[in-house]
Amino acid sequence: QVKLVEFGGTVAHAGGSLRLSCVTSGRTESPILKPFVTAWFRQAPAKEREFVAAIRADDHTSDFADSTDGRFSISRDDAANTVYLQISNLGSEDTGVYYCAAGDGRILARGPGYYEYWGQGTQVTVSS
Questions:
Q1: Cβ distance 109 to 39 under 8 Å?
Q2: What are 74-87's pLDDT values in tens digits?
């Protein structure tokens, strides 16, 4: 059973930066058992959950939502079973709950329905 846990949510100042972590456990004994794609979604207050970024396990190819506007980066440390989301130049629009998701498919999908495994989320609040 795959379990995802997010870390790093905090109250941050506008213009600052932060890094979120998503740690995977379960089915991590071998690279071929791990979920193939890991993604980040976020949900702002009173809004639907939206795709932020995703990364593949094999070649670390990534995809970003247009709204990230070059301020986000995604990376992974396979030895630590961790995927990171770095956000710079924080703005109020970045406030929300950030969810880590993982799937066994091979596509850097943007739809939440593509991902089988989800974390509980971590809250990011950007203050001005």
A1: yes
A2: 999 988 999 999 99
